[in-house]
Amino acid sequence: MAINPVPDHVPPEMVRDFSLFTSPGMPPTPNGDPHAAVACAHDGPPIFYSPYNTQDGRGTWVITRAADQRKVLQDTETFSSHRSIFSSILGETWPTIPLELDPPAHGAFRSLLSPLLSPKRVTALEPAVRERAIALIDGIAASGTSCDVMKDFAFPFTVSIFLRFLGLPDQGLDTFVGWAKDLLHGDDVERPVAARKIVAFIDELATNRRKDPVDDLMTFIVQAQIEGRRLTDGEIRGIGVLVFVAGLDTVAAAIGFDLAYLARNLKDQELLRSEPDRILLATEELLRAYPPIQLIRVATKDIDFEGAPIRKGDYVSCATMIANRDPEEFESPNTVDLAREHNRHAAFGYGPHRCLGSHLARREIVIGLEEWLARIPTFRIKEGTAPITCGGHVFGIENLILDWS
Amino acid sequence: MRIIVHNAKCQGHARCWAQAPDIFKLDDDGYILPGDIQVAEGEQLLASQGARSCPERALEVDRTSAARFEPAAMQPRTGEA
Question: Is A119–B30 a contact, with Cβ atoms under 8 angstroms apart?
Fold first, then answer.
């Protein structure tokens, strides 16, 4: 894995030994708390340079303050979102869409997809989401007094909802989750293999839907028009890959971290179980405390940003988990307070690329917690087991065995 | 009280709408409708909470217009904007 040397324009005093990939708590850690671990970023200067802070070993500027992340993510002219994060795994440069397009090209694609995931549309999807949660949890409750939350609930729940949205059968679930794992957490050999499989799958799906249209997202995309023309094959692939990758891992990880928190904090667990009306607000706090995503931008020009000499081509990291622990934005940021109000957290990013699926993600988490707490009695981490957490581009949790015997 | 809507900054988080769907109306894509919002009496707390929930800082609370309709003594200025 190549590690780029620190560029000459970065003052040595701005370089910090900090990385979302290699710092303590970031590699797979039993009983880890990677979100708490990265809060140490606030012990130093508000902006610094990390020599190793992407999956492929690049250095990035690290923006720690929520207010500064807002500035970076809102200023798409200076901080481009086109960094080919997926296609670069294949040695290519095409953008995932709309995430890696900048305005104005971004707008047409975003407008095309926004109505599909709008608050209104998500409200209409809610009964199906709840039904899926109830079916899974009832099955878990009926089969014993412990389960592997990620394997038995978080992944099947979130991925099946999203497969239905995409128009894919549930049978593909394990295969798709396997691809996502290899893509996000795999090594240099596994990642390109997974990326190639995903691309081939999306291309084939597009071909099939062109031939035999059905009522699903891919059919919508192959039939859609922007600015009076059909989408190109590359654009269809860019959208398909983004939607596929974005839906596979993030919400499941959030639900896993949330249930792990509640398993370890029984007072809060009991509060939400006895007063489920609190779950809506509590979910915002859990999104603040345990967001899974780092956002990367590329400087389009030289700029001195809040004292940092950022130069054209530099990578700029806006890690949502760091902004969400900013003491200037949140009182007692390292305390989880499920009744926290005015919680303007950064879990879904800021600016034009605000997570398109945020409304669906929120509903899935709220419904998942509501139905879990309504159906599973007081639960703890199973004695003798330890959930394994990891940092990285997308934070994750595995081997979360809950017990309610 | 009035909510000044900075439409260019709205990115469709819909947090205002989640707080107060009758005050903050969204278009089909989930972005706030253009135009400032005159807040009825009795809805001021809800409206200011909605405005304060915007992650992009696209909503600004303007209390000066309310002051015109009511005696100054009834409407202590909080200095919040």
Answer: yes
In contact, A387 and A399? CB cutoff 8 Å: yes
**Which residue is closest to B11 within chain A, CA to CA?**
A352
Question: Which residues of chain B neighbour A118 with C-beta distances below 8 Å?
Answer: 12, 26, 28-30
pLDDT tens series, chain A, 405 aa:
446 789 999 999 999 999 999 999 999 999 999 999 999 999 999 999 999 999 888 999 999 999 999 999 999 999 999 988 899 999 999 999 999 999 999 999 999 999 999 999 999 999 999 999 999 999 999 999 999 999 999 999 998 898 888 888 888 888 988 898 898 888 899 999 999 999 999 999 999 999 999 988 999 999 999 999 999 999 999 999 999 888 778 999 999 999 999 999 999 999 999 999 999 999 999 999 999 999 999 999 999 999 999 999 999 999 999 999 999 999 999 999 999 998 999 999 999 999 999 999 999 999 999 999 999 999 999 999 999 999 998 999 999 999 999
Of B18, B29, B53, the CB nearest to A115: B29
Q: How many domains is chain B partitioned into structurally? A: 1
- In three-state secondary structure terms, A30 is strand
Q: Which residues of B touch A70 (CB under 8 A)?
A: 55-57
Residue A47 bridge partners (DSSP)? A63
Asked, for residue B52, whether it belongs to a domain, the answer is yes
First-residue to last-residue Cα distance in chain B: 11
Residue B49 neighbours by CB distance under 10 Å: 16
Distance between B44 CA and the closest CA of chain A, angstroms: 16
B56 in contact with A, Cβ within 8 Å? yes
- ipTM of the predicted structure? 0.91
Of B15, B17, B55, the CB nearest to A350: B55
Q: Determine the structural domain holding residue B7 and report its residue range.
A: 2-62
Query: Does residue B73 lie within any of the structural domains?
Result: no
Tokens 């979910």 sit at which residue? A283
Give the CATH number, domain containing residue B40: 3.30.70.20
Residues in chain A within 8 Å Cβ distance of B15: 344
Q: What is the DSSP letter of A105?
A: H
Rounded CA-CA distance A402/A257 in Å is 12
- Residue B22 class from Cβ within 10 Å (0-12 exposed, 13-18 middle, 19+ buried)? exposed
Is B80 part of the contact surface with chain A (CB cutoff 8 Å)? Answer: no
Q: Is the pTM for the entire model greater than 0.90?
A: yes
